[in-house]
Amino acid sequence: MNKELEKLISLHDLDVMISDLANKDISKQEKKLGLSPDSAANELQKMRDELASTIVRKNRDLYEQLAGHYGNAVVPVVNHRCSGCFTQLPTAFFTSQDKNDLVETCPSCGRFIYWCD
Amino acid sequence: MKRECFCKWNMSSKNREDAIAELIREFSFQKTTENLLQIALETRELAEPTIVHEGIAMPHCRSILVDDFMIIIGKSDSGIPWPEKTVNIIILFITPVKPSGPSEHMELIKHLAKTLRSGGAEKILSAESPSEAASILKFSYGGNHKDE
Q1: Confidence tier at B148 by pLDDT (50, 70, 90)
Q2: Which residues of chain A does B67 touch, with a Cβ-Cβ cutoff of 8 Å?
Q3: Among B53, B31, B61, B63, CA closest to B136
Q4: What is the pLDDT of residues B39-50, one digit of tens each?
């Protein structure tokens, strides 16, 4: 898989983690388990910023723009469709041997897309 | 909560990173997915070790790399440093990112919190078999994923 795409996926997963820990109900349950969601979220935010700084500026800016607009900037391709907007992707997307070799975006919604295992 | 879980008894790992890798391998993902999930779970652990009871760790995250709940219980008789306290039971789970939001993820954490706090923690630490451990957490036992 393209290293930049790997970073974008990791960035997305980190954003999900941070957002989950800020969720009132999840935070309450984590506290019941003896965890400290607030301080964990702060630490994760630092790691998130560090990871983001290693992503190519163009991709990072697009990621932030998409995340702000849609809530999710990276989505898997499921049944030849972008799972963000459900648009059928053009055949040209499926010809490559390793489909995750390049950073690709959905031609319809613009989200970063990747192919699942 | 009748979610399916897998179990890995007699874990061989001697540290937290190896233990997470040993459990993720049981799901039989491709290497890249395995690595990215490992990074996500390790990152969460670096932010705060997820020790939820003496002897029990609960590495967990939501990820766009899975499309269903992935739950596994690991057991190490000799214990695994996590990293400052030793754990014998690891309840690892990864839940999917769905358009409906994190409600199912929250329900799973709520279920585990309730079960562990109402005597489940002590019971699972003394569980003698994978199926017993799964039953204590009210999961259906799916065996060893690699055996399928």
Answers
A1: very low
A2: 76, 78, 116
A3: B53
A4: 999 999 999 999
Check pLDDT > 60 for residue B76.
yes
| pLDDT at residue number B1 | 61
| Phi, psi (rounded to 5 degrees) for A36 | -120, 80
Q: What class is the B4-142 domain? A: alpha beta
* Domains of chain A by start residue, with CATH: 3-115 (1.10.287.1490)
Q: How distant is the Cα of B148 from the closest Cα of chain A, in angstroms?
A: 18
Rounded to whole angstroms, the Cα distance separating B44 from B2 reads 26
Q: Where are the domains of chain B?
A: 4-142
Does B147 have pLDDT greater than 50?
Answer: no
Q: Is B124 on the interface with A (CB under 8 A)?
A: no
The CA distance from B110 to the nearest CA of chain A, in Å, is 6
SS (H, E, C) B51-120: EEECCEECCEEEECCCCCCEEEEEEEEEEEECCCCEEEEEEEEEEECCCCCCHHHHHHHHHHHHHHHHHH
